[in-house]
Amino acid sequence: MKKLNRIVLVNWYLLGAEEISIRGNTAIIGPTEPGKSSLLDAIQTVLTGASKRHLNYNASANDGKASGRSIRSYILGMIDSGQANAKVFGTQPRQDATSYLALVFEDSITGKESTVGLALSASLAAPEEDVLGRFVLSNFGARKTDFIDAMEGKSYKAKPWIEVRETMKKVCLDPYIKSGSASATQYINRYLEELSPSPDHLITLDSFLKNFKNALKFVPIASPTRFVQDFVLAEAPCRLGPTRSL
Predict the structure, then answer these.
(1) Would you tell me how many other CB atoms lie within 10 Å of the CB of residue 111?
(2) SUPFAM superfamilies from the entry (predicted)?
(3) Which of 17, 104, 193, 232 is spaced 20 to 30 Å from 34 by Cα?
């Protein structure tokens, strides 16, 4: 089994360059507004390949409904479209930014790490963000130093995606690295193959996305029947018209 053991974030919401270790059952706690849901949304962004068809930011706090947050606002570190940044946190939105999001998984048997992640960019001058690249790195555990250059004091600068991409090609054996124009579905299928227990027990795209979306809502499960319907059974619509006519 491969378990999440590290989250790497560069220029995501109000976070600069961070590594968050995950061990066992982990809780994210804190008062309102410090960015707890932004971590869950970062995980969601990586696992959906930044596909807006599958994203539902801050789902647990909005009864499963879409929130006003976006990939672009997260990259630029914007609160309430940027208007509340200075008032609430004493910060300004980033003018331009390159963001890196990476999830590092560890094989519980071999101890080897694999990385799944995205490179993103956005600008206040542009209405939409860009997905620069998607990557799946077998037997390689990314660190924040793979994505940033340290500067004077505690400051840093995000490395250009081209530089990060070429380094990945050199240090990783058979890396999966695709440009943002490539299919998010292909990327999801590739990392599901990487994270599946074995070639004989592959995690399927449809069942994963269904269960992942349901899990993000954090809603109470009223009965075993509801749990089986929502998290176990795959949808299999059937046509009753021809049957009724017999």
Answers:
(1) 7
(2) P-loop containing nucleoside triphosphate hydrolases
(3) 104
> Token pair of 120, please?
């993103």
pLDDT for 146-163, tens place per residue?
999 988 877 899 999 999
Does residue 137 carry a pLDDT above 80? Answer: yes
Q: Which helix (H) or strand (E) holds 118?
A: strand 113-123
- CATH code for the structural domain at 2-203: 3.40.1140.10
Is residue 140 within 8 A of residue 104, CB to CB? The reply is no
* Residues 71 and 120 sit within 8 Å (Cβ to Cβ): yes
CATH 3.40.1140.10 in the chain: give the residue spans.
Answer: 2-203
Q: List own/partner pairs for 107-112 with CB under 8 A and 24 or more apart.
A: 107/1, 107/2, 108/1, 108/2, 108/3, 109/1, 112/139
Tokens encoding 61: 């706090």
Q: How many CA atoms lie within 13 A of 2 on its CB side?
A: 23
pLDDT at 82: 47
Angle at 77 between CA 71 and CA 81, to 5 degrees: 75
Question: What angle (nearest 5°) sits at the alpha carbon of residue 23, between those of residues 137 and 233?
Answer: 75
Q: pLDDT category, 86, cuts 50, 70, 90? A: very low
Per the structure block, which two tokens stand in for 169? 């090609």
Q: Would you give the distance in Å from CA 224 to the centre of its chain?
A: 29
Q: pLDDT band for position 209 (50/70/90)? A: confident
pTM equals 0.85
Mean pLDDT of 10-28: 90
Distance CA 77, CA 60 (A): 21
